[in-house]
Amino acid sequence: MLDATDLTTTEVRTQYVQPLIEIILAKTNLTAATLGIQYSKSSTTAEAAPTSSEKDSDEGVIGTLYQEIALYESDEVHSSTCDNNKSYAEILEEASALSAYLTREEQTLVATVASSALVSFLIPQCDYLNFLHSYFTSTSGTASSETISRNVYTLEERLTNAMIWNQDSASQEGSVFPYSASRMRSSNDDGFTTAYFYRFLDQGLASYLSCGMTFCSNKSVIRKQAFNDIIQLISMAICPVTPQSNVKPKSVAPVKESSLLPFSFQLSHVDRLHLLRVCKELAMTSDATTNNQAALAQLRESLFGFASYVAHSDKEAAAAYEALVNTSLIENDESCIQFEFQRLLQTLVESKSPCIINSTCLCIEEMILKYKGNKNKLHRFALRLLAKKLDAEINSAKDTRNNLSNTSTTDAENVAKRQKRFPDNCKPFRLIAIMKAAGVLFSTGGGLRNASEGDVVFEAEAAIKQMIQNTTILLQCSADDQLDIVQSASECLALVLSNETSYLIEKSNVKHIFTHVRQSLLSSSNDKASSAIIDALKPLIVICSRQSRTCAVSFLSFAIKTYSARERVLWKLATCVSIGNPLAVSTRLSNLGESSSDEDIATCKIRTILSSTCGKAVDASPSDPLQRCLSLTESISDMWVLFKLVRVAFQTSNYSFARAILETRLVRGCSRQQSFMYFNALSTLAHGEEVLAVKGAKGIAESMELLSSCNSLLTSLAALEQNDKFGFQLEFIRLRLDTLNLIAITRSLYAEILMTEGTLSGKNNRTTLFRKNIGKSFGLLVSRLKKMYRLWGLHRCQQTRSTLRTLQAMCQLLSEFTKYGTKEAKNSSTPTSTSAPTQSMNMTLSKLRTDVLEQMPKLKQKDDSVSHASGLLLGLDVILKCPCPFPSGFFLMKPIPRAIVNISADPNILPKTISQNDDHDVTVDAKSGAEVIDAFPGLVTKVILSGVLPEKFIQTADVAFSEIIAWTTLQYEGQLYEEDDAVDSDVGGSNRFTLRDGPDSGETAGTLLPAGKFIMPVTFEPLLQEGYYKVIIELGCRDVRGGEWKVPTSSPLEVIFRVDDEGSI
């Protein structure tokens, strides 16, 4: 994409678009008037360009393609005339970068050029200029309009006419096409023509297909025909013989031309592979419509045929499957998606190649994640098929073992010999692939049970139960070469159970899972194998311990009974249980053994003790468990291990332990200035939180002083680094300081109400005013936390997002406490935190809401303000005593990459003739630097957002996303002209007011194109009043679970609309 953040739409079109279109017109012998394109008078377009025969008559050569190739062979000629003689690869690449600034007519011209250039390479004996001109000529021989439906020639007829035209011209001129079909792909070729062909595919055609300009509305007849030609040509070139399949989706139409022309293509296998890779770049923008089902269906069949019959290696087949999924997602038809999903799953099950199994698994996952239709229906369809295939794979293994046990000794030996001769070594890969696909299905959070029909719900529940039971059976595959199966089964079960929270309520289900986990653990005989199995089972153990206390106690009792003599395994298993349910472990710490000098065992013990003490009563003073942890750290010499333990201490609110390690070990051992400042900041932060947890309200002043010192150190570090590495840390500390400051003010205010017994609460004084504003202040903290969550949540882990949601719930609860009894309390909404319910803060907030806030209306006292004040002070003291949940993302010091976004006016509504002296041309506001766009009263206004997301932004996202969102805010800035013939009013005047803002403002969603590119039109409602309007746009994205996140940009996204009745029409 072109980086035009500092250019206006007119400047881009004048400096880039117009010269490019003039070059295309000169190369193709077309005129702007024929296409409906109007520019200012130029020497290039004033007269028709010379025809190919006129240019080549002196040289005796027919066709400009050969001239273009020959031109590139001469570096001297290319260096002197490269600006006026760009190759088609360069033209398509530049047009793709400028796609947001091209009008409909210009996009149509580029589409026909791309189709004709592809024809010239696939069929060199075809006169591609004649083929190009046939798009703009109807059957009667007259010029045709873009928006008029007409009876056009078919692809076969136009190709035939172009080849006949080339033969006639060659016979009249006494020459032949220099690069004939035989020489084009002969073994004696010098390779330049082939290299030029590949450059055209990789640089030109791939860029054009990836920009989303190929798809169009139903009115664009010529562009639709050009796209159909490109897709059909590529389909016939990739796989000339279309395989016949027994089952076809309903939307596939028969293709008449698929078997007539492919044998005219002189292509090698490498040529077809390059064309296949180009198909992976095919994309469609959000405002386009898919009206090319027949061509896309032919392409899908061709890609599947290439993967099944033409591919020479598994990697080539994998590339074909990737392109097949991309094409299916673009078509976005429910029947086609289900058909391709079933076909890919069948390929996965029947394949004997690990590479094909892995690639088809990735394709299935991509189809589940990026499908934009009815996801619930697709998820139920996919779940039913995956459960059935997994059941079939497990039953086949059982049948094999049963047959071996029931046969005689001789027959068993023969079966064993046959299995050695033809072993099925891919069954583990198939099992892992099916479970990974099922895990992705449940990780999206799709409504597998959200259906109106009872039969559908029952069928989904049965499939889920079957999936859980079959996956649980695979936990017994604990051999050294099958640990990958155990790990995949554990991860799959963890994702399923996190979505199906009611499964572990039944004791039979808990017993079923515990039995298979126990059998898997008992299969190992040494500490190394047992540790490997525990690592593989860790996701399942954590989620089961979190959802079922019975499960947690069973795992812990089994560990104490079985591994009492194997201390390393005992503490490793106890650590996993403590992550999910620290309360269960805290009661059994004395049964887990004494101290050990082994570093690994000491690390596991410290992690377990820190996690378990988090679930106890809040007391940050040094206690026996913490003293055990400090004594165990003496056997640990690795500074990185100590820092990881400090992170665990922060996450579990054991600030005294973190402070002790930081001050005694890490600060003294660091050798860099930045490290010294960072560890000191963490130590100060831990000290501040420790003081607050011990002293409660009495320690607010001291805690705020320490947190302010931490903020100063982090600010100095950020200045030394000169980037946004500490953006998250600084915002979190400032929010913490503002929260404590507001809590201190609230306590003093309501303590005054208690002391005066509410005698001043009903009067219009300072106390009453502060009381009204306290609730709004906590509401502002909630909004700041939401902004922080939307900005940083996508690039931080689940624990960080959960912590930020908990802090939002805390501020929201305090806001409701302070608004109790006022008018705002009736309209306030209470968001429920989706964090882990076992966290200390979540349990505290839940008790305060049920035991205090909800009971306050039931209390019948003479003075309600006194009871309200006492209840609020009680809630504040409890919250201050409860350790603040700490996000693990605080220790991740990486900035969020910023997107480059261009805002441009719709080129279709700009003046047809660009004049630099027109007062109503697009200009730039002098103060804000925003582009000023003319808008017509009563008409819809549209701007186009185009840009690219950095590759790091996509790679570092914790949740996959495929949609781009734009939120718009429209503000009225002022009048066009002052009254009494005064000078123009200032755009940034004081008379501004917001017309649309917040969630009710405009929201536009777009599709993320390949390589992070996007083009998204944003439409605004008609503006009736003249004046200046400022538009503020916020860019975001939507993940596969439906969560919405903010995307930071390199520059503010602002534009100004100038609505004027005069001069623009």
From TrEMBL:
Lineage: superkingdom: Eukaryota
Protein name as catalogued: Integrator complex subunit 7
InterPro entries cross-referenced by the UniProt entry: ARM-type_fold
